[in-house]
């Protein structure tokens, strides 16, 4: 398993946020920073990668075994086709995309009554896009972007049925579709091609709970259990990009009366298991707002992001060293 960096977890530091006051970092600078931090890859926004020297990046991926993934979006086959061609030219093997539809926080209420038609549209677009991915020799990996539930992601994979289509597991986002992260990963494991490493603190609310970004290993996601699951599932070479959560908390309103109509059928037992997890891992009542939400100065938000990123890198590198050590011991015994 290889640890890399997604630019979207540090949008002030990377110059992606309009309030940062900085120009966006280019692909070469992000790659150089990642190599300096002993990371093994990057996931770059399509527009950032397109402005770079693609042949030089392709050479880097060959010489150093450094992975590059392309962060695209949507299910329009023309747009995703361009992303696939960009990936092939840069040596990237993965094009990550998102379906959308739901509002951030898993809220589908505005599509009640039309969610099924939306999913058919997503399947049709992705099926056409995957034909292009097959021609270019790359894989489209659809993310659980606080929009689609595990049942829907598996349905898409089984419907499209191509080795060039799979999933990007975001380790924190299952909580936005009312699912426990490790169990979610277990359900979609046969289709995982790419990973976003994310963790959250949970703060209860009257309508459900809020998800607040935090460094990896300090929140509710059981990363040792996930690494064990990946190993047992034969996913040792996964690209795993650190993507700390958004600067705005996500409010998951699972207790609202009208939250569920567009979701797959869930049993009372499933909801009870989720709420037990939430209550067991919730933080005490406090000001959960990030520095960005408190309108701190851009330099302060930048420093906050960088501190969380450094902590996250150290945690994941230590965890993988421990996993590798345990594997070596098992092999010896």
Description:
The structure is a single chain. The relative contact order is 0.13. The model has no long low-confidence stretch (mean pLDDT 95). Helices cover 42% and strands 17% of the residues. With 333 residues, the protein is α/β, with parallel strands linked by helices. Helix 6 (150-160) packs parallel to helix 7. The longest helix has 35 residues, at 298-332. The protein has helices spanning 27-36, 46-50, 54-64, 77-90, 115-136, 150-160, 181-188, 223-232, 268-281, 298-332; strands at residues 2-6, 41-45, 67-71, 94-97, 139-143, 165-170, 192-197, 200-205, 208-213, 239-242, 250-252.
Topology:
Layout: E1 2-6, H1 27-36, E2 41-45, H2 46-50, H3 54-64, E3 67-71, H4 77-90, E4 94-97, H5 115-136, E5 139-143, H6 150-160, E6 165-170, H7 181-188, E7 192-197, E8 200-205, E9 208-213, H8 223-232, E10 239-242, E11 250-252, H9 268-281, H10 298-332
Parallel strand pairs: 1-2, 1-10, 2-3, 3-4, 4-5, 5-6, 6-7, 7-10
Antiparallel strand pairs: 8-9, 9-11
Helix pairs in contact: 4-5, 5-6, 6-7
User: CATH first level: which class?
Assistant: Alpha Beta
Order of helices and strands: EHEHHEHEHEHEHEEEHEEHH
**Neighbour order of strands in the largest sheet:** 1-2-3-4-5-6-7-10
* Share in β-strands: 15-25%
Going by CATH, the architecture would be Alpha-Beta Barrel
Please name the CATH topology.
Answer: TIM Barrel
Averaged pLDDT: 95
What is the straight-line distance between the termini?
22 Å
Extended strand count: 11
């Amino acid at each position: 398993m290889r640890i890399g960096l997604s630019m979207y977890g540090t949008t002030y530091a990377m110059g992606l946020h309009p309030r940062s006051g900085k120009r966006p970092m280019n692909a070469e600078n992000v790659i150089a920073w990642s190599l300096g931090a002993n990371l093994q890859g990057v996931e770059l926004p399509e527009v950032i990668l397109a402005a770079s020297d693609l042949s030089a990046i392709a050479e880097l991926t060959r010489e150093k075994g450094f992975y590059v993934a392309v962060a695209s979006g949507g299910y329009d086959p023309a747009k995703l086709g361009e992303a696939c061609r960009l990936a092939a030219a840069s040596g990237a093997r993965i094009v990550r995309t998102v379906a959308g539809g739901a509002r951030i926080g898993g809220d589908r209420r505005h599509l009640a009554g039309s969610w099924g038609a939306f999913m058919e549209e997503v399947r049709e677009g992705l099926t056409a896009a995957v034909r292009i991915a097959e021609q270019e020799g790359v894989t489209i990996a659809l993310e659980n972007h606080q929009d689609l539930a595990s049942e829907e992601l598996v349905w898409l994979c089984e419907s499209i049925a191509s080795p060039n289509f799979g999933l990007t597991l975001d380790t924190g986002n299952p909580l936005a579709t009312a699912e426990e992260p490790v169990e979610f990963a277990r359900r979609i494991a046969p289709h995982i091609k790419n990973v976003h490493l994310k963790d959250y603190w949970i703060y209860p609310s009257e309508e459900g709970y809020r998800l607040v970004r935090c460094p990896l290993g300090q929140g509710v996601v059981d990363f040792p259990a996930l690494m064990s699951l990946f190993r047992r599932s034969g996913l040792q070479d996964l690209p795993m990009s650190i993507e700390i959560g958004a600067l705005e908390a996500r409010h998951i309103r699972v207790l609202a009366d009208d939250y569920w109509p567009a979701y797959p059928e869930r049993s009372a037992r499933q909801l009870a298991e989720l709420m037990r997890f939430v209550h067991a891992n919730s933080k005490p009542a406090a000001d959960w707002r990030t520095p960005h939400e408190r309108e701190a100065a851009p330099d302060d938000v930048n420093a906050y992001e960088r501190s969380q990123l450094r902590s996250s890198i150290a945690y994941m590198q230590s965890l993988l060293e421990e996993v590798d050590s345990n594997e070596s011991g098992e092999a010896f015994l």
